[in-house]
């Protein structure tokens, strides 16, 4: 195939910047190079911040209705170009085309949602304790912001951060993963076409992530950073943010439990389990990792889950009929293989799958393991792959303790017909996102985020735009009554 050449989008210009070299983007299904991108330097990030600083005041002063129109137009254009965007995403990230189309629509929904939130940034008036004073609360954009995004949702992770930033009146520098920069650049092209002013958005791509991000973290003009990625990196960014007192939003690692009680609708639970586990080849931070199943239905659930997983076709996402694509890179494949090998060595049984598929590309069979216990790596760490570890439990109290026995607190799921139990678990599970009889709870209008070591802040929903607003308190004296 013909190699595509991209450029970075810095200060409203498509440019090589100061890059002396390019980096290559690879298709994880074929291990072929599909595109090249200038390998940005620290000076390119500084240029992006300078460009944002030059227009921040004017963008913040723009009408909310004007910002909303740009976001709505961008969402419309994303949907019109859904096939091209999905094809690009499948090439660089591997997910099947049908799933990539779904992500494009999901990504566009954040532009739609925050287009509606832009004119709803309301202040407050507060009753004063003095007759001659009035108290007014103003909400204004924080200023220049930055987004550091992962490879597993190369479009949605950007729009979920960029949408509220633009709606609030903030400029933004996006540093996408070097594994999947093309979707980010395509989104920048769309925003340019719908009239986003120059300098409001820059997309800076490069392989030296530490150097590029350090410029962002060291620059006092950048007042807010949103990061999605590992907990280890999130902690580093949080420490770095302290020196310039930046606001941070951190959506970090997960280790999601999926709990099935014996009174659950088993057919629905199995269907949702496959969706929750296999979305994005299991390489999402909200993918179910530990499947806790009450003992009386354990064997039935495990057998039927294995049957469903075994029916999923694995292959190149651009080819029709494949429901499961490749893992993103060789290191991810090696981690999945290590987790399965460790579990089997410690007594787990493989009901289906358990092996790499082919010699080219990073494919792994959808896998179900039984007789899993908490001594195994797969019960202790996030696998980030297409492996379901099924663990029996007896009582509600026991499974709550097991589900919470992790430093992570992003997403959890449980299935039951008992309404009282729904509320008990919703209150007792230590997770920011809880799916009750729902394995796919993510949506633009709901607050997405974790607790404990899974992060800080919320994205999406009416709460998402608050992350990009400063609160000012005006005390007005001298009022004659």
Automatic annotation (TrEMBL):
GO terms for molecular function: oxidoreductase activity. Coiled coil: none annotated. InterPro entries: Ald_DH/histidinol_DH, Ald_DH_C, Ald_DH_N, Aldehyde_DH_dom, Aldehyde_DH_Superfamily, Succ_semiAld_DH. Gene3D superfamilies: Aldehyde Dehydrogenase, Chain A, domain 1, Aldehyde Dehydrogenase, Chain A, domain 2. NCBIfam families: SSADH (TIGR01780). Keywords: Oxidoreductase. Residues 14-473 form the Aldehyde dehydrogenase domain. Its EC number is 1.2.1.-. Belongs to the aldehyde dehydrogenase family. This is NAD-dependent succinate-semialdehyde dehydrogenase. CDD domains: ALDH_F5_SSADH_GabD.
């Amino acid at each position: 195939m013909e190699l595509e050449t991209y450029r970075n989008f810095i200060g409203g210009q498509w440019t090589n910047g100061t890059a002396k070299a390019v980096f290559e983007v690879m298709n994880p299904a074929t291990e072929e190079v599909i595109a090249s991108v200038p390998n940005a330097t620290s000076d390119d990030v500084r240029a992006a911040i300078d460009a944002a600083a030059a227009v921040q005041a004017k963008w913040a002063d723009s009408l909310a209705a004007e910002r909303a129109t740009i976001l709505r137009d961008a969402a419309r254009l994303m949907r019109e170009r859904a096939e091209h965007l999905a094809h690009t995403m499948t090439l660089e990230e591997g997910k099947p085309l049908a799933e990539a189309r779904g992500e494009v629509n999901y990504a566009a929904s954040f532009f739609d949602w925050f287009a509606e939130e832009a004119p709803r940034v309301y202040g407050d008036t507060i009753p004063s304790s003095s007759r001659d004073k009035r108290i007014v609360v103003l909400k204004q954009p924080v200023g220049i912001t930055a987004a550091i995004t992962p490879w597993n949702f190369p479009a949605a992770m950007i729009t979920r951060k960029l949408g509220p930033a633009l709606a609030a009146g903030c400029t933004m520098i996006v540093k996408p993963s070097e594994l999947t920069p093309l979707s980010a650049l395509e989104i920048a092209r769309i925003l340019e076409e719908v009239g986003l002013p120059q300098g409001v958005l820059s997309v800076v791509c490069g392989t030296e992530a530490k150097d590029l991000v350090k410029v962002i973290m060291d620059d006092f003009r950048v007042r807010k950073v949103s990061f999605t990625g590992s907990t280890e990196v999130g902690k580093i960014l949080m420490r770095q943010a302290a020196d310039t007192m930046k606001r941070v939003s951190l959506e970090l690692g997960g280790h999601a439990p999926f709990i099935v009680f014996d009174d659950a609708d088993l057919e629905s639970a199995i269907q949702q389990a496959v969706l929750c586990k296999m979305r994005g080849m299991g390489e999402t931070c909200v993918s179910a990792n530990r499947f806790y199943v009450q003992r009386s239905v354990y064997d039935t659930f495990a057998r039927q889950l294995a049957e469903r997983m075994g029916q999923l076709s694995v292959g190149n996402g651009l080819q029709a009929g494949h429901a499961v694509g490749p893992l993103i890179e060789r290191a991810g494949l090696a981690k999945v293989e290590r987790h399965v090998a460790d579990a089997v060595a410690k007594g787990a049984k493989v009901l289906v799958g358990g092996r790499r598929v082919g010699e080219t590309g990073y494919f792994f069979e959808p896998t179900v393991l039984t007789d899993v216990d908490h001594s195994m790596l797969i019960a202790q760490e996030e696998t980030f792959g297409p492996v379901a570890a099924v663990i029996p439990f007896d009582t509600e109290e026991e499974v709550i303790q097991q589900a919470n026995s992790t430093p992570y607190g992003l997403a959890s799921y449980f299935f039951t017909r008992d309404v009282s139990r729904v509320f008990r678990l919703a209150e007792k599970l230590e997770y920011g996102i809880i799916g009750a009889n729902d394995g796919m709870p993510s949506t633009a209008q709901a607050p997405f985020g974790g607790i404990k070591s899974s992060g800080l802040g919320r994205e999406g929903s009416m709460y998402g735009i608050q992350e990009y607003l400063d609160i000012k308190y005006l005390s007005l004296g001298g009022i004659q009554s």
